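User: Hey, quick favor. My workstation is busy. Could you predict this chain's structure for me?
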Amino acid sequence: MTDGTIALREGEQIDAEALLAWLATAAPDTVPAGARLNIRQFPAGFSNLTYLLTMEHEHGRRALVLRRPPRGVKAGIAHDMGREHGILMALHARDVPVPKPLARCDDAAVIGVPFYIMEHVDGVILRGTLPESLTDHPAAVPGKLAALSDTFVQTLAQLHAVDVSTEPLASLGRPDGYVQRQVQGWTKRWLASRTDEVPALDWIAAWLEAHRPPDRAATLVHNDFKLDNLVLEPDLSRVRAILDWEMATIGDPLMDLGTSLAYWVETGDAPIFRALGLGVTALPGNMTRAELVQAYGAHRGVDVSDAPFYYAFGLFKVAVIAQQIYARHVQGLTSDPRFGVLGEVVKALGNSARTAAEKGRV
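Assistant: No problem, here it is.
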């Protein structure tokens, strides 16, 4: 991935010798003879930690990716490496564009936490800026971004058409009452992680509970579908891989759309949202959130008139995720400097959620 790596952060190191010894036994095909292991860390992302493993040997090198939970988190499906690895195995077998999973370790004694290894998928990941291949030809950028917007929403619609009637996907979640559990569950997480008073979040939590739509036909739900979880062709024409399946489940597909909308920053949004690294969506050529909603409805042939509820929920959920990470920062459980700004991000997201609910628009 053309996604820069850094030296391992304090408290997030991995014992390279222990990992290489485990790999040589558990997945010998991934370790060429005489290989030396170099480990670097992907600095982006706010939850599970991701590392680039480079196997250097006399005939060249091979790149793999390791995923593990961070320090200071409680056990749960979002940090269940075995679950995430199993989802990748099931989706890879169904030709969904995901990295191929290669090995899994449930023994925390190896590197201190459970983890899994997957193939490295080369390509472009869009965060705060465009790749040089596009900025060198500025006149082409709006057209590329317009096409990417459509690819983005088509890919989400296609995910929601994946057959989940058989195992292991069928057991990922409980579709009945999904929206109710999500609203109530994220409200509990907000109350449990709150470090400051944010009246807008308290207000939106009550509003969501009072305005829940009825259950609709359940589908696969990624739960974190956004541009920087996609590995793209260098010209942005195709999705090579969808990343970060830690929160995937079975449920209301419009909840997935709502989360995507929450990350889709527009020009008029609060400037602090750029701290999430997703300002590319505000550049000329991209669809607006309203256009994304209509395109999704057309691709799937479904009613999207209640999209403002799902957008408000998406903003609420992203705010709570940011708050949980910010709380870890306040408690001194992470040294990542990006987390210090998340308190202000939480407030801005809460205000945007309340505005969306009150005005009934995305």
